[in-house]
Amino acid sequence: MRPCQGVPSTPMAKQTCRKARILFVDDEAGIRLTLPLVLAKFGFDVTSVGSLDNALTEIRAEKFDILLSDLNLPQLNAGFVVIEAMRKAQPRCINFILTGYPADESFQRANQHGVAHYFIKPVEIEEMVRTIKKKLAQNQQAR
Q1: Whole-model pTM?
Q2: pLDDT in tens, 100-131
Q3: Residue 105, CB half-sphere, CA atoms under 13 Å: how many?
Q4: 94: three-class secondary structure by DSSP
């Protein structure tokens, strides 16, 4: 996401700025229904999908600033397939893992895949949002 340049910082002007787009991938219907609503309240535009195939389709069809993917979809470590596809298709997208089954091996693999952060369920929402916004700001400064 590019910051709005040359736009006055008035409430009306800020509304014309594009929200950061998140692709959220999780096979658990409950979290897929609730977390996107919460993230939207924090100012994100969220697309939510529940399978590896649907995630790959979205990556080909739309542009995203952030990928937040479960690790097991339910296929073990399928989140890494999603991350690799995103890295190839949209190299500027910032990738995050969200898992209820943390392991040293997957944490190390996440580091090898350039994952910005490895969140463990249950995640503290405000901490997650702060981390995502911080990584977005760093990414924008690096451009």
Answers
A1: 0.88
A2: 999 999 999 999 999 999 999 999 999 999 99
A3: 5
A4: strand
